[in-house]
Amino acid sequence: MTHPAPASSSHGGADALRGILLAFGAFAAFSCSDASVKLIRDGLPPYECAFFGSLSALVVFPFLLGGKDRLTDVFATRNRRLWMVRFIAYPLGIIGSVTAFSHLSMAEAFTLIFLQPSFVTLMSIVFLRERIGLPRWVAIGLGFVGVLIVLRPGLRPLSIGHLGAVVAGMAGAVSVVTFRASGTHEKQISLFGAGILGGITICGLVSIPGFALPTPHQAGLLAGYGLLAAVANVLLMHAAFHAPAGAIAPTQYSQMIWALAIGHLVFGDSADMVTLSGIGLIICSGLITLVREQEKHVPGPPPIAVSRGHAASMLVSEEQDAAL
Description:
Blueprint: H1 13-40, H2 46-56, H3 80-103, H4 106-113, H5 116-127, H6 134-151, H7 160-182, H8 188-207, H9 216-242, H10 245-248, H11 254-267, H12 273-295, H13 314-323
Helix pairs in contact: 1-3, 1-9, 1-11, 2-3, 2-8, 2-9, 3-7, 3-8, 4-7, 4-11, 5-6, 5-7, 6-12
Keywords: Membrane, Transmembrane, Transmembrane helix
Transmembrane segments: 45-66, 87-104, 110-128, 137-154, 160-179, 191-213, 219-241
Domain EamA: 18-151
């Protein structure tokens, strides 16, 4: 299956607008997916939910195939070490995100997960020897100050949900750094399929000893969780064919609006002005990072979709292609 060419500056405004609207739709679907798994709460272990979510991600595989690619190319790689890192990072991220949404409000979970761009920047300095300027250091500082405002350590108890959200953000950052390190040398089916296979394998093996058969209600929520995420990834890929990555990336922050709305309407959550101010700082941090990396033509962090489907991260490879 062949893909249309990624969007470029030559596309008209109507085409770019279509891509942006598709991206907004994708992140709305991702948010509904998060709400579905949150409704399960502690009814099933996080790794079992992650297993079913990874199985649903197989729906995305045909969209990752190039003209001469085969499904077996998911195992093909020029760097087996980076392939294995993606294989392990994805299940850690998806287990972390499920844990976070099970124990925290949606807005608070997203607050920590949205630290992913800062984690990417820090890891890129260490592992890719990237140099960053003052604006990106300011962005990192704003992000962590925002987290401190939201969490208010010492004034509020921390839980395993907070740890899960941080793990999700860090695992997503690890995946992004491996995408950058791989450059344009890997096929998309291998780049993104490695993590999905890791989710199925690792989460599946961990689930075996205490596997709990989902009730019909839980099965419906799991289906919504996985299929909505798969649909969102497909929408995001098609958005990338109509609009440049730089135009799509900021739409990821619409997830926070959905988190606040769904959290209030479905789960009865509320956010005070202190929390909202912290969320604002974190969003500013991410936007500064996105703008600076666009200006420097650095393949930036992909839109954050809680690392459930690496298809969202294909924007990294498209930015790399555009830079060649």
